[in-house]
Specification:
The chain is mainly alpha-helical and 108 residues long. It has 2 domains: 36 residues; 58 residues.
């Protein structure tokens, strides 16, 4: 037996003809009605509440640290081209890639 929930509330959104058509095309491409796509996107989207803001700030800080590590590796590799051990550089890049994948998984 289906547990269908009746949706009795209505929210109106003003849009241009082009916006409406664009939304309808996007919904159709996903196999959804426009209202279903709107509900999905609104429920999924971060609202920017304080906890979301702190989480985003922490995420940005971690990405900045990783970017700093990449810059240090690039500077070192350019300075010591002859002495650069490929295994050291690859190991560092692998650690950075792992950190980025972990952040992406946590943010997703």
């Amino acid at each position: 037996m289906s547990t269908k929930v009746n949706k009795t509330n209505h929210i109106g959104i003003r849009a241009t003809d082009a916006e409406k058509l664009n939304w309808e095309l996007k919904a159709h491409a996903c196999g959804l009605k426009t209202s279903q796509l709107a509900r999905y996107l609104l429920n999924k989207h971060s609202t920017g509440y304080a906890s979301d803001k702190r989480s985003r700030q922490e995420f940005n800080l971690q990405v900045a640290r990783i970017g700093n590590n990449l810059n240090q590796i690039a500077r070192w590799a350019n300075t010591y081209k002859g002495a650069a051990e490929a295994t050291q550089v690859i190991a560092s890049l692998t650690r950075i890639e792992s950190a980025l994948l972990a952040l992406n998984h946590r943010a997703g």
